[in-house]
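Researcher: Structure prediction, please.
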Amino acid sequence: MNEEFFKFLGNVSSFVVVVPLLLATYRFKKLNKVQIRLLYLLGLVLIVEFVSNMLWRQKINNLPLYHFYAVIEFLLIINIYRKVLSGIFSKNFFVILGVGFGIFSLANTLFFQDLYTFNSNVTTLMGLLVIFFSLSYFYALLKEVKYSALETNPMFWINSGFLIYFSSNLILFFINNNMFKGSTEASYLVWGLHAIVNIVLTIFYTIALWVNPKKL
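Model: Predicted structure follows.
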């Protein structure tokens, strides 16, 4: 597999998010609160991917964009989880976590990984926290007394997608700056795998927006 294939795969990965967005637009009146919150996240992803690709094509470093994106993305993910995990964690827990993450991200940019460096410390921490949320959600499901059809539960699909995506990319986020600097065969392979996992996540997003849950 050559460089052109990985670039093509990366482009597909970047803009495949248009599919669930179009679906959400078509089904907007039928979406519940969790699906609406997912829609906010997808809108952010599309904007960031568009701007990032524009900068890259103009040979402008697009890494500063991801320093801001990571914080907003994490806050939107918290917004998705705070209701479904309200039986386990208090509202203050998510507020403290969001503020703490923002402070950590700022400190990381100022003292460790500047705006023109991939913020792997922040993305690694976010991955660990989202995996924690995902496992907590499955734990909450096991504690439910009543039976519920998981295949029609959008949160089940969102949570599963998050778990697969962040678990798969955790090592990539952590080692990116140390092992894959520059355009090497290894870097193309790793980011190609990242693109595939991102496409899988988008498929889960699409299913989450397609199902017809009970209104929350």
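Model: The chain has a mean pLDDT of 88.
Researcher: Thanks, that helps.
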